[in-house]
Amino acid sequence: MTIAKNIQQQATKLRDLLNEHNYYYYVLDEPRMPDSEYDRLMRELQALEIEHPELITPDSPTQRVGAKPLSEFAEVLHTTPMLSLNNAFDEKEVHDFDKRVRERLKLVDNIEYAAEPKLDGLAVSLRYENGLLVKAATRGDGSRGEEVTQNVKTIKAIPLRLCGDDFPSVLEVRGEVFMPKKGFEKLNKIQTAKGEKTFANPRNAAAGSLRQLDSRITTTRPLTFLSYAIGVVEPAISPDKAVLEKGDIREISRHSGILYRLETWGLPTSKDLKVVNGIQGCLDYYQDILTRRDNLPFEIDGVVYKVNRIEQQETLGFVSRAPRWAIAHKFPAQEALTQLLAINVQVGRTGTLTPVARLAPVEVGGVTVINATLHNQDEVDRKDVRVGDTVIVRRAGDVIPEVVRILPEKRPPNTQPFVLPDKCPDCGSDVIRIEDEAALRCTGGLLCPAQRKQALQHFASRLAMDIEGLGEKLVEQVIDEKLVKDIADIYTLSLEQWAGLERMGKKSASNLIKALEKSKSTTFAKFLYALGIREVGESTAHLLTQHFDSLEKLMQAKNHELQKIPDIGPVAAEHIVAFFRQSQNREIIQRLQELGIYWVENEFTTAAQSLEQSLTGKSFVLTGTLTRMTRNEAKARLQALGAKVSGSVSKKTHCVVAGEKAGSKLDKAQNLGIKIIDEAALMVLLEESA
Ligand code: IVH
């Protein structure tokens, strides 16, 4: 007795919970539970009811399709009910379905199935009378829906008038209104820009857009439509005029034939419809679509198999509002519910601080997820994510899993808002937020372990210290084996240490030592560029060396002084100041100098000054391919001589250097009558000026 009472309570609890969430999902368009969780609870209730049929109540969510329509829309009665589909979550359930079908049809042979993607939008019924679209309705609870004719008419994929002349006088077309992935992303960007609520997924966006009382809003939403069934049809559809061979899948006695006829009348149908043979054909189709899922322009949550022959469909009939002749084979859910255990801070290779949610392990899209990105502080604030929260995680394709939102009603007491630290968790350096950027960045640069590999690779690169032979693989090794903690250490490794690394012999080790020695003699600009200060690329480094004749002066420069330099804006200035403010960075620079790195302090300033007469202030444009040096080199050498190098040709351009295969910039220069020189002439100019 007590057990039975327990079970009854459990069923009531499940029903209430499902009904509540059904309301959020269907009526408010505001799901508060991922579909996978809803499905799981529904199956739990179904299992209970199968075991104890006496527990079934007329209001059980297992006994109906959807929810009551919103009162503001006119109600539409569906003469032919809009059906639901039973779900299969694994291959066994698909096999069971096929077995049931064959048993009922008393067939041992393979069944001919039509396989289609299961679109993730909302079902609508379109009524055409004498070829004109007269009424459109949502599914609602399957028997009664909402009239959304005006809104549907805004969807360009839906014809307002059918093509041809052989359509039945009354034709109800059923299909899915949905929002393609690209349109969804764009819509959310617009919503964000307008400061309005974003949609959690394309399905919600489609539902929210179609169920608008004002069709002027719907018209701005990127909705589309595909047909997959018919409702009332009077008189019956006549066969196509085209003479078809027996067994042609376009025969009107087949589901695929009906869709074919709909297409001839201008109604869109899925390009991925396939007629397959037996259960194996279905499962192959599933695999094929699953591998293509991420590349499809719209979201799908599975595939649908339908017995293709109409007379077989009729024999099979329906059970509680779902056809016995069809089943939805669901893909692993892309969203799931879990607990947020902690928030860690990860420092990326460029110093960006990313808050990462550590989660109670959960299956999402067929993979166990334990981490999800929270992107940045703004996102954390917007979603108000806190440790202890119950969260919805989403993983689509290869994309990093993310926390979509939290369930506020599940929040435990005494949680704290999360704030990113103001010191880097990896190196303790200051963290700064640059104006207009969402990201927080560590200023540790050269010292920060998280940024070491990138910093060292950049330091050794050709336009920086130009250390020949110190490539990516070696950089990884010396960092991973902890031989190098900061970039200065690279000059302290012994021949033996180098020779001991993978794929390094004595010979290459000795060459590397020579290259390191050679790199010690450099220029101020190259050194500055090598430090890898954010926003300080090669040309900014040059600019800086033209305005500061020593590193010491630059290191003490104030933000406003830097901003006085043309082309140096507030962002670059802030990065430069922040970099030199870090004592660790100053120490590394000092060590590098102690290890023998040198340059003629004001080499470029003097060079530029002495050439005041020649190239100063003259504006050059480089175009086409240069063969004797890279464009970067040419740019740097021209800049070192005081010239400006610009990316586009204008009346103010003094000279265009045209390399091989020069294109539109050369044409423009010719049109404007600007002086044009080739690479050889540039070499002469550079030699003469130097
Ligand atoms: S056929 C006779 N085909 O899934 C059964 N439904 O779970 C009528 N859906 O309400 C539906 N893609 O919104 C069918 N290719 C497809 C579908 C599809 C998506 C949706 C539809 C339906 C729900 C049932």
Word description of this protein:
With 690 residues, the chain is of the alpha+beta class. It has five domains: 5-64, Helix hairpin bin (Helix Hairpins); 87-279 and 293-317, DNA ligase/mRNA capping enzyme (D-amino Acid Aminotransferase, Chain A, domain 1), CATH 3.30.470; 335-410, Nucleic acid-binding proteins (OB fold (Dihydrolipoamide Acetyltransferase, E2P), Beta Barrel), CATH 2.40.50.140; 449-599, Orthogonal Bundle (DNA polymerase, domain 1); 614-689, Rossmann fold (3-Layer(aba) Sandwich), CATH 3.40.50. The protein has 25 helices and 24 strands. The strands form six sheets. Strands 14, 15, 16, 17, 18, 19 and 20 form a seven-stranded antiparallel beta sheet that branches. Strands 2-13-10-3-9 form a five-stranded mixed beta sheet. A four-stranded antiparallel beta sheet has the order 5-4-7-8. Helix 24 links the parallel strand 23 and strand 24. Helix 1 packs antiparallel against helix 2 (35-51), helix 16 (524-530) crosses helix 17 (538-547) and helix 17 (538-547) packs parallel to helix 23. The longest helix is centred in the first third of the chain and has 26 residues, at 2-27. Bound molecules: 2-(butylsulfanyl)adenosine.
